Amino acid sequence: MAEKKLKMIVGLGNPGDKYKNTRHNAGFMVVGLFAEKLGLAEARTSWPNLLAWGKTEGQKVLLVWPQTFMNNSGPAVKRVLDYYKISPSDLLVVHDEMDLPVGRLKFSRGGGYAGHRGVQSILEEIPQDFDRLRFGVGRPTKGDHFKEKSMDYVLSPFSSLESQAVDETLNKAAGLIEVWAVRNLAAAQRLGNRSEKPPKPEKEALTADEDLKPEAAGEAKAKKEPKNALAQ
Question: Is 116 a catalytic residue?
């Protein structure tokens, strides 16, 4: 039997403690949790990325967390793709999506970047279609202090009222990545692209301090991200 082709899974985000648990780091969180489920406690540095190797049901996977900051993700992803001679058809990019509410996921192949600078950077380097898993982070609501500043919004943490939905969706996404890797995109879409609307969390009142320092709001519990240590 021919050996299965290596599948590459990229989680998009920004490196550093300042950005942990922010909406824009949903890709880092999902792939980090998938790595944990595979028993991969640590990732190794291969600049400009963190890499981790694993296997699930006989399928080899390469997990990648670009360390170049979101807007420059493309060259980092292309470098790994080219070095290991991986086809874009065997690539899955996981990223946050403002056009989906918190609690929703969507698998797709191809498409534009819809204002997402990390995806835009990858598309500039890899024009061929690749698979994507969009993780819903929602948009600011009417009266929200982020309403006119989308970048401030995605760089803010999830609210405490969203935390249960976020945890459940992270776990679901990590499981669906395995479906994508072992089976195919269509199977992941059937299980992940459900149209039912998730419960809408109550709007959380913001204090004056939280208005000034959104990163301090609620002290959400830490989500799993790769450790920067040399281990394979």
Answer: no
- The model's pLDDT over 80-119, given as tens digits with 9 standing for 90+, comes to 999 999 999 999 999 999 999 999 999 999 999 988 999 9
CATH number, domain 7-216, options 3.30.420.40, 3.40.50.1470, 2.70.70.10, 3.30.750.44: 3.40.50.1470
As a whole number of angstroms, the longest Cα–Cα distance in the chain is: 63
DSSP state of 228: B
Q: Amino acid letter at 98?
A: M
Q: Report, as an integer, the average pLDDT of 136-160.
A: 81
- 3-class DSSP state for residue 18? helix
User: Pairing relation of β-strands 49-56 and 59-66?
Assistant: antiparallel
What is the DSSP code (8-state) at residue 194? Answer: -
Report the run of H or E that residue 28 belongs to, with start and end: helix 26-37
| Nearest C-alpha neighbor of 194 from the set 131, 95, 100, 126 | 100
Residue 195: phi and psi, rounded to 5, are: -90, -10
Question: Tokens standing for 35?
Answer: 């790595």
Q: CB neighbours (10 Å) of residue 190?
A: 12
Neighbours of 8 (CB within 10 A): 24
